Amino acid sequence: MNRWISPELFAAFEAERTSAHRLFTSPDVWVERLGQDVLISFKNDAVRDAAADGVREWAARTRFQIGRVFSRFLPRQNAERVAPVLMEGDAEASLHAVVMERGVRYGIDFGAGYSAGLFIDQRANRAFIRQRAPRRLLNTFAYTCSFSVVAALAGAQTVSVDLSKKSLDRGRENFALNGLPLEGHRFLADDVLDVLPRLERRGEKFDAIILDPPTFSRGNRGRRWQVEEQIEELLTAALELAEPAASILISTNCTKLDRRTLERMARFALKTARRGGDFHSEPPLPDFPEGEGAQTLWLHLR
Ligand SMILES: C[S@@+](CC[C@H](N)C(=O)[O-])C[C@H]1O[C@@H](n2cnc3c(N)ncnc32)[C@H](O)[C@@H]1O
């Protein structure tokens, strides 16, 4: 089975001004295009080298001009994650690049660590937020603030929360890359679990909330975050901040939490909060085989 994206799909991405997408997916290796550069994520050297050959063949078929090829090892433990390594191309060139998604610009930094700056499997959810055009967006676990950028482009005020000040700085750069002034946008370098009750005490309300936490992390005072144990608590706290007809994105990469489990947890949180809601998920992305990428669910409050 040929799991490289077709020349037709590549042409469709070019036409819609998207330069960040998957090129190839298999269980042990996947390949992303990020602007002119390519990133191979691999579980062993043999699949990495085969994917590098595949990139050259695919590029010849589609006339894609490869800039550089980076690769990164996919470890079992998060603690063993390392930054991508340059395999081919100019070692002197800047590790910074800019990619586009439906014309929206995002900064990439291959030297920043394991993740280069944009989670491409959230493309449809970003498009949904842009089209939903909220007035006030709360973006928790905001990373480089891509959801805040699309909401701001649609006219929203935004609050982005992340433990990492560096990631939020990159978020501000993403605003600048899209010509967005920072007025009306807050960037809180803090633990989501501490920020949500504070926002509630201040009576802040939002008509869109993004909940896309990592599987595991350590927050303020070394507090442990484990998504499958705490996602209900997170959702309950988010419901306190949600306006009557708010939309809430619930998203996770944790393989223990599939879409049905997320929906069951969300129904339980709704019942506890005495609120009603409907659910939807965006259709699968054309460059991701079914089941690949984050599990995501939108909750629309009634
Ligand atoms: C999976 S990424 C989020 C991706 C983001 N939603 C996007 O689409 O670009 C997880 C982020 O959560 C942040 N993080 C982890 N634990 C946190 C916590 N307790 N409070 C705030 N941010 C946290 C990390 O710094 C990281 O940037």
Kindly summarize this structure in a few lines.
With 302 residues, the chain is α/β, with parallel strands linked by helices. It is 32% helix and 29% strand. The chain has helices spanning 7-15, 45-62, 123-132, 146-153, 165-177, 192-201, 227-239, 259-273; strands at 20-25, 29-34, 37-42, 69-73, 85-88, 96-101, 104-109, 136-140, 157-162, 185-189, 206-211, 216-218, 224-226, 242-252, 277-280, 295-301.
Topology, number of strands: 16
Instruction: Please give the largest β-sheet.
Output: 7 strands, mixed
Percent of residues in β-strands = 25-35%
Low-confidence stretches: none
The hetero compounds bound to this protein are:
S-adenosylmethionine
What would you call the structural class? alpha/beta
Question: Could you spell the SSE succession in H and E letters?
Answer: HEEEHEEEEHEHEHEHEEEHEHEE
Distance between the ends: 44 Å
What is the tally of helical segments?
8
Strand order of the largest sheet: 10-9-8-11-14-16-15
- Helix percentage range: 25-40%
The Rg value, from CA coordinates, equals 19 Å
Mean pLDDT: 96
